[in-house]
Design goal:
Elements: E1 12-14, E2 20-22, H1 26-45, H2 53-72, H3 86-100, E3 110-111, H4 116-140, H5 148-170, E4 176-177
Antiparallel strand pairs: 1-2, 3-4
């Protein structure tokens, strides 16, 4: 078995269902950005100090894997890959609410970089926000019909922000405000 197929050498890739699209298609851009999001969460997870962070991030990465499948599915195939729903959005809200009880919410914008995990979480948050924009575009074009996908990504970015604060605290660092 090889780790390559050469099928994409023509600039196209498969969807989950019938058909191929160009690798720059909006759906593939969204899937790629979701993949980046998961990789960034993995980078953060590998550096987390607070024991509450890693399990939450791992579960979010698994959710992103399922979210990617739904985005990559053709419209007639999407229901088969439907996993992200209001209960998964609620799970993110529960995690964010619980963790926000143990950190102090800054009253101003912050700058990333006060801890390794915190900086990685800030990067993940920014990539997730880009993924959200890509998924919203697909939803507006009616290529993706599940509104919980964009809601999930919106809440996941909030969770990353709270986890960044938690990880800065776990590393013994105060979070740096943007204004001096």
């Amino acid at each position: 078995m090889t780790f390559y197929t050469s099928k994409g050498d023509d600039g196209t890739t498969n969807l989950l269902g019938e058909g191929r699209v160009m690798k720059y298609h909006a759906r593939i851009e969204a899937v790629g950005t979701l993949d980046e999001s998961s990789a960034a969460l993995g980078l953060a997870r590998a550096q987390c100090l607070d024991p509450r962070s890693s399990p939450v991030l791992l579960e979010a990465q698994r959710d992103l894997y399922k979210l990617m499948a739904e985005v990559a599915a053709t419209p007639e195939n999407a229901e088969r890959f439907h996993f992200i729903d209001a209960s998964r959005v609620a799970w993110l809200e529960e995690q964010t609410d619980a963790l926000s009880e143990v950190v102090e919410m800054p009253k101003e914008f912050i700058l990333p970089g006060d801890s390794l995990a915190g900086a990685a979480l800030s990067l993940a948050r920014a990539i997730i926000r880009r993924a959200e924009r890509r998924v919203v575009e697909l939803h507006d074009e009616q290529e993706v019909v599940n509104p919980d996908l964009q809601r999930y990504l919106n809440r996941l970015s909030s969770l990353c922000f709270v986890l960044e604060l938690l990880e800065n605290k776990a590393a013994g660092h105060q979070t740096t405000l943007a204004k001096p």
